[in-house]
Structure formats: C-alpha cells, structure tokens
Fold these 3 entries.
Entry 1:
Amino acid sequence: MDPSIEPGAPAKAAAAGGTEGGGPTRRGAPQPRSEQLEARILDAAVFEFSEHGFAGARIERISQRAKTVDRMLYYYYGNKERLYQAVLEKIYADMIGAQRDFVMPSDPVEGMRQLVEHSWDHYVTHPDLVRLLMNENLLRGKHIQASAQVERTSFPLVETVSALLASGQAKGVFRTDVSSEHVLMTIMSLGFFYVSNQYTCSRWIGADLMTRPRRAKWRAHICDVVLEFLEPRDRAAARKSVPAKKSAAKAALAR
C-alpha cells in the first residue's frame, strides 16, 4: 500500500470523482473545475515532488500547501501517479513557454548565443525542474514515457535549435557536419550538469559554484564552447593561426 495515500483514500477518490488507479468516474454532471485551485495544487505538488521524490511525496502535505483537501486532488487527478505525471508536464510546459518568448535574431550566431543564455538562465531560476528531472531519471523515465503531452510540448525547442543551425549553415557561419540534436544536447548538458551537481562539485572544488560571479562565468563559458564548436573548421583554423603568427613575429623581433 502506498504510504502517501491515507486510509480510505480510494473510497474518497471514488466519491469525489476518481479512483486510486484511474481517472474521474463521477456519475452525473461534473463540477466545474477551478483553474486557481488546480494551479495551487500543481504548484504545491511541484514543491513536494522536487523535495521528496515520487516515493517520498505525501498527498496530505500537497493538499495542505495548496490550502485544499485530499479529495480534491483525487477528484482532479485520480491518484498520486497521475498527479506526478501532471507535474512533469507542467515543468516541461513552463520551460517551453519561457522558450516561446525567445525572439530569434536575424544573426544566427547571436541567436545561438542568446538561446544558450536563455536555457542556462531557466535552469538556474527553476531548481525544482532540475530536481524533478533527476528524480524521474532515477525512475528510468517511467512517467515521462507515459506522457504524450511532454513529447508534443518539447518539440518547439528542437525546432528553434534546428532553425538557428540551418540559418547559420546557410550563411556559412556554422559547420555543416553537426546535427541539431547534438547542439541541443550540448546546451542542455552544460547547463543541467552544473546546477544538478552544484553541491558535490562545490565540495570537491572548494568553492560555492552558485555565487553570482561564478554563474556569470559559466554562462559565458557555455556560450564560448557551443559557438566555437559550431564555427566552421577553416575559420577556426584561421583564427587560431593569427595568435601563432603574432607570437612568431614577437620572437623574431626579440632575437
């Protein structure tokens, strides 16, 4: 028995319009859903699941934080698993919603830089997202895989990266032998790893990685890594040869 579900919860869920294992089964006309209440429930659930994981989360704590009663959670979501899936869908929707505000510049290099910064800023300002995704990976993506909505929600981010990459390739400022998938995974990895591993890395590095100066330096570093990776090889070689020529000239003058 799930310890997070109080005794008699299945009966309450059935009376309120849901069952422990599925969706609403209420007979007759359904009660109108309250968007404000649903928002409070989801916000409370995001906090609870990010702090305690799926196994450790408690329905009663979520309802208390949302200033409602347990039966309303069962009425809207049926059971704990479906509420957790709704939380995952929410954090993905929030991430893509923020990305939709991204205005793509005509300059693909500047556009890629801004996209990298935009992605990094979202990870830093949404630590719940990072913790929830870490927990879901421990569960081997069980709930993500069951959600068709997550796949649909995530697609615009892939489109944005693909559009920027194609634009840069057409203008000759990006390499043509890279895929949008690799670019997107690189951006996400460099941002996600830093935030998700901040505590252990801060310990062995001996410094707080989340201070404002260190975050700013990492933000700039991610941009440099991605843009240098995308730079056409001939341009990169020419750029690197300039300092070498200058060093050789200085050495010749010193002799």
Entry 2:
Amino acid sequence: MSVLSGAFTLAGAREAGLRKDQVYERVGAGEFERMGRGVFIVVGSLDPTLESLAAATAVQPLATMCLTSALVRHGLSDEIPFGSDIALPRGVRHPAGFGHVTWHSFDRATFQIGREALDQEDGLFAYSAERSIIDAFRLAHDHGSDAAITALKRWLRQPGHHPSALLAVAKSFPKAYPAIRSALEVLA
C-alpha cells in the first residue's frame, strides 16, 4: 500500500490500496478530513490556507486561486476570507460539496493569463498579483471597488512594480482596462 499525502480523491485512495470504508474510518479517527464530495486531505499535511485549493485541484487540475484569496496571498489585502476563491474555466463543472469555496467561472480565452504555479506547492496554481488586481477591478460590481483600489495602492508601493507591467496585462481585459488606467493616473 502506498502512502497518501496532501489531497486525494477516493479513486486515488483506491490506487493507494485503501477501500472507501477504510478512508471513512480514518476520517472518523481524525487522520483524514473530507473537503468535498469524494475528496479528502491528510490532516496536517498542507498549509491550512491551501487545503481547499489542493482538494479542488485533486478533482479539477485547472483550479486556480483567485480574487480575495489571491490578493491576500500576495499581501495586497488584509481581508480574512471566510473561504477560498477558486476559478475554473467557464463551462467546467464546479466540484460538489465544497463548503468553504466560492467558485468563479472565468473566460476560457483569458483563463491562463497570469496563472502561476505556487512556490513549493506541487500542482497548485494562483493568479499573479497583476491578474488579481485586474480581476478585482473587473468584478468590482460584486466585490466593491475599495478592495481593488487598496490592492492597487499596495502593489504600487512594493519595489519593482511598475504601472506599465500592470497595463500590459490589463490590455487583455478591455472592459477593465479604462478603470485601471484611470486609477493608475490618479495613484501613480
């Protein structure tokens, strides 16, 4: 029997030599935690802020941390999110049973823009700081413009960040571009 680590599905547990009843016995013993329908984590094996993302990735490899979760990871927001914001390409089914995940569907044409592998975390992805700021502006009607402006101010104060780099990425999002450009004119 192979050893499970991180997040896994029931199919992965089966490949490791565990039956479904054995997985649920270990859930009861506190060794595993059920994260969603048919997906589990090994308790204590992951950074707690990445558990939902790892579990989502076990089911949908394209799962990507986005919006508030990504802004917090990049130090661009002080919000304490109730759950994780995770994006999938539009048309991809969101995994069921994830209690602390807010799912987002992003356009397939722009889904890969700014998508980066997380350091030290094999197979986990988050949007870059630039893409996260753009998404905050794009979705300000849902999340409020304060979060977008705060994130932009913090990003501009960090060494090595230049408005031209943000605008270069923002050109792929024509509806958000004017708002970002206007904010940069005021702040930069």
Entry 3:
Amino acid sequence: MKFTDLKKSGHAPSLLASFLYFDVSFMIWVILGALGVFITKDFGLSPSQKGLIVAVPILSGSFFRLVLGVLTDRIGPRKTAISGMLVTIIPLVWGWLFGRTLPELYSIGILLGVAGASFAAAIPMASRWYPPQLQGLAMGIAGAGNSGTLFATLFGPRIAENIGWHNVMGLAMLPLLIVFILYFIMAKDAPSQPTAKPIFEYFKVLKQRDTWYFCLLYSVTFGGFVGLSSFLSIFFVDQYELSMVTAGDFVTLCVAAGSFFRPVGGYIADRIGGGRLLTFLLIGVALSMFGVSQLPSIYLVTTMLFIGMLCLGMGNGAVFQLVPQRFREEIGMVTGIVGAAGGIGGFFVPNILGSLKQISGTYSTGFIVIAGIGVAALLVLTLAQLSWRKALSPNEASVKM
C-alpha cells in the first residue's frame, strides 16, 4: 500500500472537508479546557470543580455522537455535519456575550458537545469513500482533525490574556464559518451511503460483542487523549506553577504528538493490523503515565506526557482501522457509539485527576489510576483478539486485525 493509492481511490475533496470539519469542531469542543485556567480564576473553582467544568463538553459530546451517528446513517454525513456546525454557533455566541454564572457555563459546555460529536459524521464521510485496505490511512487523516486542540491550546491562552476568554469564544466563530463554507462546497456523500432504516434497527449493533470491545478500547485511547488535552493546562499551572500562556505551550507540544501521529497509527495498522499495534501502544501508555505519576521535573514529565499522548493518538488510528473491518454498513452508528464511549472516557480523566488531587493532595494518585486503566485495556484487547481469531473465516484471514 502506498500513499499514491489514496489519490487513485475515493474522493479527495470530501476527505479534506472531513478533516477541516473535524479540526475546527475539535478546537471548539476543547475550548473550555484551553481557557480553563482563566475560567477557574474568574470563578474560584476547587480542584474537583476544575475537572468537572472541562469534562462537561466531553460528556455531552458522547450523547450527541449517538444522535449524529443515527443522522449520518439516515440522512448522510454531509447534511449531518452542516447541521452540527450551525448548532455549534449557539454556545459560542452564548459564551461570548454572556456566560457570567456557573450554571450558564455548564450549559455552554453541554452545547459544545455538538462540536465534539462531529466525529460521528467526519469519520463515516471518509470511510465510505475508500476501500478496506485504505481504511486506516483515510480515517487516520480525517481523524487527525483532533489537531484542532493545538489551535485551542496554543492561541486560546494568548488571545485570552489580551482580550479575555469571553471574546476568544466569539472569535472562534470566524474559523467555524470559513470551514462551513469550504465544507458546503467540497463535501460529497459517497455512493455507498446505505438506505435509511427504522431507528431501532441501528441499535442492534449493541448486541454485537465487538461493539463493546471497540467501545472499551476507544474510551481509553481517545478518552485519554481528549481528557488529558482538556486538563493538562490546569495540571501544569497547579503542579509546576507555570504561567497560563507557558502552560498552554507545554500542552500544545503534548497534544501535537497525539494529533499528528494518529494517521501514522492508521497507516501502520493497515500494514500490521490494528490489534497488534494497539498491544505495543497500550504498554507505552501504561508505562508513560506511571512515569508521570512520579511528578519529576517539568522537562521530564513533558517528555513522558509527549510519549503517552503519542501512543494514545496512534491508538485512536489503530482502533478505527479495526472498526470498518467489522462494521461497514453500520459505520455511522458504530462510529457514534464508539465515539461516545471515547467521550465518556474523556469525561472521567479530568474528573479522576481533579477529584483525587482534592482527596489525596497530589496528582500522583490520579496518574497511577490512569496507568492502571492502560493495563486493563491491554487485557481487554487480548480477549478481543482471541475472539477475532476464532470468528475469522478462511476468506477473511487476510484482513489485518
């Protein structure tokens, strides 16, 4: 398989449109986390409240991913994405002009979940245009839109320091509107768009054991990535007393590893199998998070977080190399369900770190728990691989899982 194969297959404008849509949506989804140190300063939040406020958009994104997953299979990813971008304008306007009370902030966070649900439309758009042997790479490219976190963590604190965090949310509407126009022009639903079914039919995939395997694995890889992305600025400020802008720079460095290596994870998974790659990556996650739990110097902890985020990002690509091998027609719904599980995992990460910091007085406890979760995910993967080996027919033996 070569990158030139990608040019000969599918629809490049739709793949690019999927990436842009996911990228700007991801930026907006994690914007409360990027601005977290400014928001928590204004509201005087406790450690557990800090974890909750940045986790609310992640949790609501899980719910909305199910909604957008059904819509993607029923009306197509293009219409679903366009609708999602229009709804995303609401919390940005609310946060820009209002957002003066904590209940308002929670409500804004809930609505920002629609941006996080973009995954359920962006990934199927890319998947349906490309053959099985290119799934990992194509979906990795679309999924690399989680690099939107970079823009949030790099520019959000800098702009907020000068014009305030409310105005940052208003300013975020500009890239959203630009991407909306580009998406409207470039994106096109694939001919393989399945015929709409009654809604209850889509939920039959919940009876499949593989759905739950993918949910558990993605809740660790994606959940770990987005959860840490949202909380690390608070961690760096609290633990290492960095300035708000410098903390954002350190977070950006860590996030870059996970974002840019997601397509690499998909590419390698196409060649050696997503399951095999995930085995090594989950070991890397467990070891790096245990290293972080020792709370070493700022440079060493950043190095370990970089490695951990790299493994999580590649793990995201590996999981979604596996999903289309098992589910093709139901890819929209399965993407929504698995994506929702990833969001739920992301909700727990900042809450674990914030709550255990408040209880134990140290962030060390929370990172030890996250390392343990990585080990548990490795055991789940082992069970899943045994199941896949038994289930594969002779004709499917060449599929790299």
